[in-house]
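Sequence in, structure out. First:
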Amino acid sequence: MTSEDLSATAHPANNSLANRYGGQKRALTRKTKRNIVIAALVVGIGFMAWVATSSAQAPVTFKDIGYSTVDGTQAEVDYQVTKFPGATAKCAIKAMDSKFAVVGWKVVEIGPNDPKAGADGGSTTAQRTVLRTESPAVSGVVDSCWIVDSGK
């Protein structure tokens, strides 16, 4: 074998390895590394801003206290709502029959509380909602509550 034969056989082997496994990896340039760090900082700052503004929204919580059926067409639901005293909330109240079908539904608005009332600074208020029902109800609960945007 001549030296030309050796180089001809060695060269295709290198090409086949490069084709199979890819060429040599290039290191990240200084500019690319800097851009990645800047992008990570922007994403981190954006996330922190989102967390800060979303927690600024006053949450509202509720607790079912009880219910009573006045007659076959009316039910009363007693519950507590806890929210920032100056906020306005809306709550969806439902009455259900023995098969858990909704037989009465009402959305009520709960306005700002007196901050001087109650032991918790006026955050929690007791509520009673009277619902009309299409058939006798066997339970009544708060389905959900949410804070109403004051700009609307």
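Second:
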Amino acid sequence: MQTNGTNDRSLYLEEWTRMMVNIWEEKILLLDVNETGALYNSLKGFLVKNSGGDVAVIEHFFNFYGIYVDKGTGKEFYKGNAGDIGITPNRKAKPWFNPKFYYYTMKLAEKMTEISGKEFTYIMKKVIEGTG
């Protein structure tokens, strides 16, 4: 079956969104960032579509404190401290979020370029054949 790329795009975006949530869930479990399960259970991914039905935005959600867990900061640190806070912090960075996100975002951009090229080729073929 020939495709114009539109279905390919939506399917790929849906799977990519799910894949990112799965990667984060695995990292949270692997790094033992699961004391209460709140961060793990807060991970969600959604595709927001425009009125034409095309995907306009991919949204990922998680509890905001997850960024602090990722960087190893928390209540022992406060804004504006002098650098020597006088205690040994109990927290260590548990990089569950950032390490792969940039890499997979670049892979997503490459795939969207490939799908757009296929879609353009399909449109040009239809124009040349006089059926489009």
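Remark: Residues 61 and 68 are 15 Å apart (CA to CA).
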